[in-house]
Amino acid sequence: MTKKDKIKSFYDDMATQYDMLFQDWLKTTKIQAKILDKIFKSYDFNESAKLLDCACGIGTQAIGLAMLGYNVTASDLSDGELQEAGKRARENGVNVSFKQANFCKLSEVFSNKFNIVIAMDNALPHMLSKENLHCAIESISNQTDKGGIFVASIRDYDELLKQKPQCSTPYIYKTDKGQKVSFQAWEWLNENYKFTQYIIDDENSVSISKFDCEYRAVKREELTEHLLSCGFTKVEWKFPEETQFYQPIVIAIK
Fold first, then answer.
1. Beta partners for 185?
2. Which phi and psi angles does 198 have, rounded to 5°?
3. What value, to the nearest 5°, has the Cα angle with vertex 166 and ends 153 and 125?
4. 50-53 and 97-100 as β-strands: parallel, antiparallel, unpaired?
5. C-alpha radius of gyration, the chain, whole number
6. HEC string of 189-243?
7. 59-101: per-residue pLDDT in tens?
8. What 3-state DSSP class applies to 183?
């Protein structure tokens, strides 16, 4: 199985359970949309901007932004997640144009450019080498209009690489019927790490799901260098204490 197929399979398999990573998925979409909206407006963009979410998953950011009135196009490698995202968009009464696309080859699907491109929730570290990451950033840059911005979030790998922990911090969500627990177990090999995503649900009877994939820990300096070398003119970082988003966010101006 190729790396691309492994990533696609990971998200295809997890698509119908992805919302279990959140205590309240819909509430999270609305909160994150407001955070992103504030960032966009601080760079003089509003709801009239043409926006592409190039790693949309089940629509966590795309649907929330569409609820705020943004003109959203969304793409992902996983058709399983796109099906789930489409269903959730319909359930919430918003119009989002969903397309299947590899964010390393966006020009194969999109002929137009966008004012805003986003890739949230640690999507970029699925690129397992510097060369692959550069390819992804170049593809994203080519789809970003002049004067536009690219916004992405990644884990704080500058800190994580100091200790290389064996797992992520568990999320525990209590419900009226029990609790849901999700976490990742990590196996490090230099700057890359294989991970297993566990989702445990004991609301009725105990069920345990697990999904395997891989990331490369990308430091902020490296990502900044790729962005600047691929045509972005300025790169800024914002951190959770400022944005209230759960990961560091990078903003690159074209």
1. 167, 196
2. -105, 135
3. 25
4. unpaired
5. 17
6. ECCEEEEEEEEEECCCCCEEEEEEEEEECCCHHHHHHHHHHCCCCEEEEECHHHH
7. 999 999 999 999 999 999 999 999 999 999 999 999 999 999 9
8. strand
State whether residue 56 is helix, strand or coil: coil
pTM of the model: 0.97
In order of 31, 145, 185, 232, the CA distances from 95 in angstroms are 19, 23, 36, 30
Q: Which two tokens stand for residue 123?
A: 């999507």
The residues that bridge with 237 in the sheet, in sequence order, are 250
Assess contact for 55 and 10: CB atoms under 8 A: no
Average pLDDT of the chain, as a whole number: 96
Phi, psi of 50 (to 5 degrees): -85, 120
The answer to whether 103 and 124 have CB atoms below 8 angstroms apart is no
Structural contact between residues 60 and 25, judged by C-beta atoms closer than 8 angstroms:
yes
H or E stretch including 132?
helix 130-142
